[in-house]
């Protein structure tokens, strides 16, 4: 298999951690691509019409894209370890969706300042995106700590990647303030070996 990736992408990071956790890292060749909403990589576009990473090329079917599709596929291939069954499955999926929603808003904030001309930027729009992030982080801190402190699953990995991205791109926003339980959880979670090995390079 081939994984089209960018080392700074938090969605890619989710996939990389799952590969490490399930022992499948050696089954995947990494193809580094540079793509933005304004400049799509041609090799990636041929595999994913949305021109987004990650995208997973398989030998026995169409290329998969969207990180949640890829992680679900790889987890099934690796023995169904990180998407539990029963009632906990829906909690895991909701937690992962919350984390990905945090990432969606946080990345849009980056695009606003990096890709949009300065005279067209809307600070109030950026603040609106941050409000989504802040509300979601507060919800994690007040509603989800029991799940986060439970057996490892993809929801926890997604939250870890989301918080890591906030530190990476928006550290001045001080998400830890008022979220002591989540901050303590993340301090321990980010010390895991595969969290350390997938820290994005400064860019």
UniProtKB/TrEMBL annotation:
Annotated GST N-terminal domain residues: 1-82
SUPFAM superfamilies associated with the record: GST C-terminal domain-like, Thioredoxin-like
One matching Pfam family: GST_N_3
Listed InterPro entries: Glutathione-S-Trfase_C_sf, Glutathione_S-Trfase_N, GST_Omega/HSP26, Thioredoxin-like_sf
GO annotations of cellular component type: cytoplasm
Protein's name in the database: Glutathione S-transferase
Domain of life: Bacteria
GO MF: transferase activity
UniProt entry keywords in alphabetical sequence: Transferase
Keyword Transferase: yes
